Amino acid sequence: MPYKEKAIEKKYYAIGEVADIFNVATSLIRFWESEFDLIKPKKNRKGNRQFTKLDIENIRLIYHLVKEKGFTLQGAKEMLKNNSKDIQDKMTAIDSLKRVRSFLVELKNRV
After folding, report:
1. pTM for the full predicted model
2. pLDDT tens across 22-41, in order?
């Protein structure tokens, strides 16, 4: 039976990788970590932050509220405190719609 290659998923991401995902400075990620209880990366023996997928999803929520919607930090904290599930659902729907849109644009460009 032939060997089937599996995509290797990382369990932890370094702060530089997380900053690259959102195209922001690492200092902003550290600042948000100090401001929002949702972001709790583990630290290795050297003290380097190790972000999980859950941490990255929480950063995505904060990024959406602060950078895309223009909320203040206090406003974002209140939204996350009161409507975290609603925001997550909306973000999932928005991501799905963006993927559908890019697929349709690609399909249109082929014709």
Report:
1. 0.70
2. 999 999 999 999 999 889 99
